């Protein structure tokens, strides 16, 4: 057997392949432990506490402050340091101590680039339950996995469960903060001359408030369902408008949709996009879409390809008809919705930015 790594062909013996298969299958079977233990570390507040200390923190100090069993905490830290999530170093008096790494800094509850809320959402019992219905979804097509688990779709569920709705909005906001920084740094040109921008399915307004801060000439309209808008915090330069994007979209010079279209099937996306075209000027208007593009950037880079394909599975488990799309699939829905042209711009994020013109 031959295997190519970075252009080097290596001969692999049959025994090696079998032991690699054993390792791979154990990793597959117990892969969930990483998310579960990371969730535990966030809930205990380990990243937050280490972050407030410049020096390595000993196990005793950490267990005392957090009120944990030292022996159980040691095992949690041993697992996470082995994965590079925390780092073990000696304290001043020679004890074993722990410090943050680049990964664990992303797990602070409210750090600038915090991804903690996303971990807490995806590891919640509500979001894990639909995975048990994935095979039924694939076999029968008509049974959406989230609805099979909870009796309604994710947005209806959020409407009647304020706690879960908060979990969703916080998670989306932390993802939005990371992606928006990449957009603001790399696509500033495109926002010149846009006087008003409607963020369709804008969640709690995090995205728009960042855009309006970076480009203060923009009047922001954050458009989402009533139960989302009613609890959205006040954001300077942004008005919150409630409604249903399948009925209509508020008028603006441009429309913005981030991580919205991947929640829906092609016909639903075409309907939303037609409503966006209705809302913007025919001659100077544009629609800015932020979504993953499979087989584009993420086709080339293995790690991003993996994330894109994982996201596609998340869409299958958590939405009725949602999916991640290739450049060809995006071209299809944009043309069907009535756009005359579009371009796809790669940014340093999982998503690309798609500019579409009526
Ligand atoms: C995946 S979230 C994306 C939120 C935000 N754009 C972001 O990236 O953080 C999808 C959003 O679409 C909203 N949404 C779902 N159905 C909607 C509808 N019919 N009309 C308006 N918004 C809707 C949800 O409430 C949610 O905030």
From TrEMBL:
Alphabetized, the UniProt keywords read: Methyltransferase, S-adenosyl-L-methionine, Transferase
Q: Tell whether S-adenosyl-L-methionine is among the UniProt keywords.
A: yes
Q: Which residues are in the O-methyltransferase dimerisation domain?
A: 26-107
- InterPro entries registered for this protein in UniProt: COMT-like, COMT_C, COMT_dimerisation, SAM-dependent_MTases_sf, WH-like_DNA-bd_sf, WH_DNA-bd_sf
Q: Where is the O-methyltransferase C-terminal domain?
A: 131-340
Which SUPFAM superfamilies does its entry note?
S-adenosyl-L-methionine-dependent methyltransferases, Winged helix' DNA-binding domain
For biological process, the GO terms are: flavonoid biosynthetic process; methylation
Molecular functions per Gene Ontology: O-methyltransferase activity; protein dimerization activity
Q: Report the active site residues.
A: 262
- A Pfam family assignment: Methyltransf_2
Query: What family does the Swiss-Prot or TrEMBL record give for this protein?
Result: Belongs to the class I-like SAM-binding methyltransferase superfamily. Cation-independent O-methyltransferase family. COMT subfamily.
Which named protein is this? (R,S)-reticuline 7-O-methyltransferase
Q: Which organism is it from?
A: Capsicum baccatum
């Amino acid at each position: 057997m031959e295997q190519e790594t970075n252009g080097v062909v290596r001969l692999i013996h049959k025994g090696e392949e079998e032991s690699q298969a054993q390792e791979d299958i154990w990793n597959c079977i117990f892969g969930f432990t990483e998310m579960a233990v990371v969730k535990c570390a966030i809930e205990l507040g380990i990243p937050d506490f280490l972050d407030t200390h410049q020096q390595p923190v000993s196990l005793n100090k950490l267990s005392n402050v957090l009120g944990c069993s030292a022996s159980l905490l040691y095992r949690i830290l041993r697992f996470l340091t082995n994965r590079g999530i925390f780092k073990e170093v000696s304290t001043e008096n020679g004890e074993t101590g722990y410090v943050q790494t680049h990964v664990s800094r992303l797990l602070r509850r409210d750090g600038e680039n915090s991804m903690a809320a996303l971990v807490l959402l995806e590891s919640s019992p509500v979001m894990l339950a639909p995975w048990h219905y994935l095979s039924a979804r694939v076999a029968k097509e008509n049974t959406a996995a989230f609805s099979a688990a909870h009796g309604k779709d994710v947005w209806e569920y959020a409407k009647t469960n304020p706690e879960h709705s908060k979990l969703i909005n916080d998670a989306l906001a932390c993802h939005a903060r990371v992606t928006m920084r990449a957009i603001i740094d790399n696509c500033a040109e495109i926002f010149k001359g846009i006087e008003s921008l409607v963020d369709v399915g804008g969640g709690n307004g995090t995205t728009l408030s960042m855009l309006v801060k970076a480009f203060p000439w923009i009047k922001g309209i954050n458009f989402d369902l009533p139960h989302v808008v009613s609890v959205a915090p006040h954001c300077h330069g942004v008005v919150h408008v409630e409604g249903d994007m399948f009925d209509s979209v508020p008028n603006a010079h441009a429309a913005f949709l981030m991580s919205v279209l991947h929640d829906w099937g092609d016909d639903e996306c075409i309907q939303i996009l037609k409503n966006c075209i209705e809302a913007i000027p025919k001659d100077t208007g544009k629609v800015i879409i932020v979504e993953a593009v499979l087989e584009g950037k993420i086709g080339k880079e293995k790690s991003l390809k993996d994330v894109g394909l994982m996201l596609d599975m998340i869409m299958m488990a958590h939405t009725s008809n949602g999916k991640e799309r290739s450049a060809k699939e995006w071209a299809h829905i944009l043309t069907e919705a009535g756009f005359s042209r579009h371009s796809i711009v790669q940014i340093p994020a999982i998503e690309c930015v798609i500019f579409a013109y009526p």
